[in-house]
Amino acid sequence: MLLRKTCAINILSKFVRNKSIALVGMSDMEGVFVRCVPEEERMQITVNYKHEGGPCKTVNLERIQVEEVGKTIERLKASMLKKLSKKKKRKKQETADSTEEPDLKIWLTVKEKLIENEATPINQTFVEGAVLHIEDQLLPVEINVPVITALVLPTNIMVGFPIYPKIHAEFCDLLKSTFIWYRYQSVEDESQKKKKTKEVWDKVSEGFSYTPTISDLGNKLKLTCMPKLGHRSGEEFTSLSKCDVEAGPGICPFESRHLYTQNTLEDDGIRVVSYNILADIYADSDFSRNELFPYCPPYALAIDYRKQLFVKEITGYNSDLICLQEVDRKVFINDLLPAFESLGYSGVLQEKGGTTPEGEATFYRNSKFRQVQDCSIEIRKSVNEDDIQSDIKNIVSTNETLKQEMDTRGSVVQVLVLESVLNPGCRLCVANTHLYFHPKACCIRSLQTVAIIRHLQDVIQKQKAEGFKVSSVFCGDFNCSPKGGAYEFITKKYLGPDNYSWSNNPNFALEGASFSHELDLKNSCGIVEYTNYAGNFHEQLDYIFIDSTMDMICVIPMPEHSEVKQHIALPSVVFPSDHIAQICDLKWTSLFE
């Protein structure tokens, strides 16, 4: 499943509604508010009006878009009269006076012209510029007003770590909307004879995100949002934090790495990050807490804690290209995407095949790249269906056990073709993957890698055939050491029949398997002692491969070993994942000048 952005920030929710629900946030504003989306069968109409100077009343309708306007007006009138009739009956009981049944005159005009054809569909009459007349009241019709339907603050807030709200919005450009953060403060009210405390909210910041300070410690926060789209504004929405601001874990090792990435690179530079952030479905479970990571406090495995760390970590790298693995769907939608889009990135999630709600996510800086194509694939489907993979399919078919295992793996490779904003004729083919993890599955990982390289070659060749200059970056968690078959195939362009990958597991044994490729790829960050340090397992599994059209400027140093094992292993209270991000600075070669 591929999730893409559909508005300024991709947290546009499907509107939560029942058959007669008010448009959220419009209950206190006089007027007629219509939600009408062409792709949907029905439309919602909220009418806020006053009768005889009384308080604002609300009538909600949900109707088929092609319903005749005459029927809708009659339905609206009936709903209003029903409320008035109840009010009159109450007054009659109170005064014992006879009261005539109420009546209302209601009609609709568009650009001051009366709607005379009552058979006209309501999606052609309840439009911008229309006015609903209720007796002597004139209620302008507004279509698809910017609206916030939900605004939720994190359940864990720490000093020094940026927080972002979870927002459900419609018809709203959140990048242009107004956000104001407040801190709670209780003060003594001197005006009272008996001293009492009163609530005071001090404004502390503006903007989509906020990093709590020591002054916020022990207090709650409040966020207000005024949704906007162009010149239009909706109604302000407010959310209070359910928790007090807590102290953070102190200095995290990734903050030392931030010293090397304080500034963004020049136009011809590309900083790349590859990072397995440890999916919530693998971290926050009894098995993880008791077996995989027993040394890590349970609270530090919870996603509400970890996401504060990895958002701060990744944003602090000031990268141009970010390739993440093990990205939960909810974390992508509610946390990563809003955080990065507010900083000028675009992002795409490619979920794994099957029912696993996690996958690979790639973000790129909008000032340097624009996406022109998405060529992502599910590896097993490509092997079984694509002509360029036919020899892999044939050799796998010689081992039924291997074939069944290959067919159950939902591994994907996310492949985005990005175009340079400054040099439109130059394109970057970015691949991001996470290979099968089992220690006795070297054969499967090697075959997955062969299939990926085949696909990557095909994408690059097609781009070149269209006249573009193409460079490539291949990132991911390969679950393979530098001695493994996958690594050897990528860097040496060949994997022969004697490679141990074909025989390390008797169930997956292959005879005579041999593959080669033509891409010139190298490990840009070099060989290190480990990129994964969990319990008793320490190994390099993560890589950033680049081709010969790119020059490596520098590699951001790894954390000190003493920092990694300060809390026994990873993850910990200062490391949000069991992996360590790989980061390097690259540069286009003269070929792309």
Automatic annotation (TrEMBL):
Residues 274-579 form the Endonuclease/exonuclease/phosphatase domain. It is found in: Mitochondrion matrix. The keyword Transferase does not apply. GO terms for cellular component: mitochondrial matrix. GO terms for molecular function: metal ion binding; poly(A)-specific ribonuclease activity. Its cofactor is Mg(2+). It comes from the Eukaryota. Pfam families: Exo_endo_phos (PF03372), PDE12-like_N (PF21171). Gene3D superfamilies: Endonuclease/exonuclease/phosphatase. Transmembrane segments: none annotated. The keyword RNA-binding does not apply. Residues 146-246 form the 2',5'-phosphodiesterase 12-like N-terminal domain. One of its GO terms (biological process) is nuclear-transcribed mRNA catabolic process, deadenylation-dependent decay. Keywords: Exonuclease, Hydrolase, Magnesium, Metal-binding, Mitochondrion, mRNA processing, Nuclease, Phosphoprotein, Transit peptide. This is 2',5'-phosphodiesterase 12. Its main location: mitochondrion.
